[in-house]
Design goal:
With about 170 residues, the protein is α/β, with parallel strands linked by helices. It has 2 domains: about 30 residues; about 90 residues, no CATH class. It is built from 7 helices and 4 strands. Strands 1-2-3-4 form a 4-stranded parallel beta sheet. Strand 3, helix 7 and strand 4 form a beta-alpha-beta unit. The protein is elongated and about 105 Å long.
């Protein structure tokens, strides 16, 4: 006697396919939600890589006061800092200078200044540039002659300086 195997109906196949697609869509939604909401779950190394892609001033504004972990990532890092003070107000500069520049003079690799009011500030990087021993690039725009003369005499003491733009 010959046995005939009953074929699965198309409706069952369609149901199974629809169920698989629905599960896949739900899984994709869950993955997307995790990516969006779990920035803090990234490793410190990955966060440092992201920080390197951003202007350090923006990293400071966004993450310095966010929570203890990000504060420590910024403060206790050994990564080099590129400082661009071209479009910063004097009040924001004073806070940034106190929190980042002065305590991290040993980490600053490049410095860009163009704001005239910062040249007059006694705590401005222009007055303490000789303390930036790892400074490689210095870019100055709109600098007055009196500051330039002072600066040129101090730049000789910077062992890593390889680029100066005035």
């Amino acid at each position: 006697m010959e046995q005939i195997k009953r074929q699965r109906s198309n409706t069952v196949n369609n149901y199974d396919n629809n169920k698989k697609q629905k599960i896949q869509v739900e899984t994709n939604r869950c993955l997307l939600k995790e990516c969006v909401t779990c920035f803090e779950d990234l490793s410190n190394e990955l966060i440092y890589e992201i920080f390197e892609l951003l202007d350090f001033h923006y990293v400071y504004d966004a993450f310095y006061s966010l929570n203890t972990r990000f504060h420590n990532l910024i403060v206790k890092s050994t990564l080099p800092i590129d400082v661009n003070l071209s479009s910063i107000s004097k009040s924001i500069f004073q806070r940034f200078n106190k929190d980042i520049i002065l305590p991290n003079k040993h980490r600053i690799h490049s410095l860009h200044l163009s704001n005239l009011c910062l040249y007059d500030d006694i705590s401005s990087p222009i007055h303490i540039v000789s303390d930036f021993l790892r400074l490689e690039t210095l870019s100055l725009n709109n600098i007055e002659l009196k500051y330039l003369e002072y600066l040129l005499s101090t730049l000789v003491s910077l062992p890593c300086l390889s680029s100066l733009s005035i």
